[in-house]
């Protein structure tokens, strides 16, 4: 009989026999092949529910759902309709230009998504995970997707656990559970039934899907597969988590609504004003006025904005890819620039996930072991100098070589020169430290291993027996284990090359040394040994041999922090960004790592998962303001912490690599997954992937994001002020036509600019210069500012004020030119309307080109770094040449209603247009003076 899900809600509380009965499994034979097939058909494959990939046509259609794009499509449709009503003369230039811009934006978005998908796929593991099972009494190796409830797993060192399972046998079984719990150390498992329900990390009689066997062997009954597993529970939690829109997406939506309303109002007001002031209302007049209104509406909406945004963000993405950061969505670049909190997992993100011995304490003193990770680069130091020959070195050699002998790990160098381990990371730490001391070769030639006493949770130690070729092949027992337990079995201590009796003072000293290492948040292991007598039987190694040992020394082990992470954290703090550590590891270890990295001071508070469970939402909101280290937390706790930080007004970037990080990564404003060590579930949930797993890359990404945001503000300042100048020129020109001497034939109202001229201005001044402004170099002080608040708009009141001021000046300079050329105005001129309109048209183009340099900063002079952006100069010169062509080329004169101008008039237009530059310089100088006075 197969158990229901309810029967096995917590198999850790049932004995192996009870679980086997509930699952209908024979512990000697396993399931039969037929029964396994039946259960596979009933329950489905042992796989997590995958997200269905969106089809190409849906992803393409999704590029057109942005509010600003919809507004542009509406403008294009109206422009095409007006062109059709006007007799379909020529080409519908305005509708075509807008359509091309929208299509270009969609293509750019699709290309970037495709690049991100390919990069993520390249990081995915390409090998199929398999599991060993006992079926019908036969040991088989099958794909893990074929596992079913009741299968009897056979676990061995190096295996990936294919499903959640209850242990029925375990021999020195160590499991790496970091993907689920965040614990950096492997966990020793046993078969003992638990007396009460405990947290996942403390269920020693259970193994879980997605974890790995690092040492030992065992057998386990599969109790949950697929979405019923603990990993499946996290995947379900991930499905229920919605990704929040980025600040840039929210801001663009606001801008789109504002511009859409403004376009409609301005078009109606201008058309209404012209119609009210006109004496005749023929159908041709109505069509012409409607075309003017649409042209003004298009002028209000910067049609190049979506494409420019996409291009600027895409270029930021490419620069970040060069620094090993793969961004999956364009808007995520800007979100990083707004990040005020980086909430990071510890293991593998801030640390190397490589256990390292850093301290060794023996009878003659203590040493520091330099270097981190599995590469044996570093040395053993005493008082800052390399350890010299003498009693201390003899003792240190005995500790590190003894620990290497009493273990099963292997350390090797690949053909590419990379050092890697096989087996338990803690045991590998002895091998690395031994090589740093230079004792590896002598140990491997001197000792020959002949027997092993495996580690058990009862003894808390393991031993090996080896022949000592330097002493007539004498047999030696070497033991490593918990210091307090090992000390209880010792009667002597090693001092130099001698063995001395271990008295009470000696024992107290050893315990003090262990306490010092523990207080430093180091994991401690001790090493001891005993030469065996010739009559002692070692054929059946047993723990009775572990007596009368000689205590050698104690090591302090830590999963070391990444050195580049400490530098990155200092830079983040300098940029006003708070770094928070959220881990499943022990509180003492978490605080130690956080202190080493500079996240907090040593006395900083730390909250555990149990502490968080005791806090209601208001109390948690207060706690997250003063707590930057969280330990022993579960996935639901991470979600609560991220939500509380966001509710407090923070833009949260969450980093991590384990499955347990995925829901919080998706809920954060931007989730950042590790490319090398990260699970596929985590990568799918993230908006950015660090291909090099380097925390420091995040700071580079923040810098890039801030630079992109600065450049977005630059071209928005430019586009909006320039477009406002166009609108005000037409509106004020019509309203003040009498003052300017602006009259059409038969007394009809004339407009200062034709509809085609307005569209031409948008064509040559919006796209090129704005795009070039989007690649402006990042300013030196970009990482010296406080993060942008979520409530702070990209276009704030100060920027709007500048837009209005510059727009008004542009319009006044343009209309002054018109008045200067026309007769009958405030300034008496002599030129006909076509000539005056051409000069007016040219001045408006030139004011916008001068405005390119103004818009690069709100306060810095345009002459500061004037030639830093070669692309901008190229765009300005190209736009200027195109304007010369539209004025001087006969075919273009006809299309755009222009006439050629002599050199003197060109010079006059350039001089008048430069007025916008000088006005901006005066305005910036006043602002700088006011800011200096306030400081």
Average pLDDT works out at 83
Number of strands: 28
Query: Helical percent range?
Result: 40-55%
Shape: elongated
Number of helices: 34
What's a quick, concise take on this entry?
Helices cover 49% and strands 17% of the residues. Helix 28 (767-773) packs antiparallel against helix 31 (870-888) and helix 30 runs parallel beside helix 34. The model is unreliable at 1-6 and 119-128 (pLDDT under 50).
Which features would summarize this protein structure in a list?
single chain, 935 residues, eight-stranded mixed β-sheet, 34 helices, 49% helix, elongated, disordered N terminus
Can you walk me through this structure?
The longest helix has 41 residues. The protein is an alpha+beta fold and 935 residues long. It is built from 34 helices and 28 strands. The strands form four sheets. Strands 10, 11, 12, 13, 16, 17, 18, 19, 20, 21 and 22 form an eleven-stranded mixed sheet that branches. The chain has an eight-stranded mixed sheet with strand order 8-28-27-26-9-23-25-24, sandwiched between helices. Strand 26, helix 23 and strand 27 form a beta-alpha-beta unit. The N terminus is likely disordered.
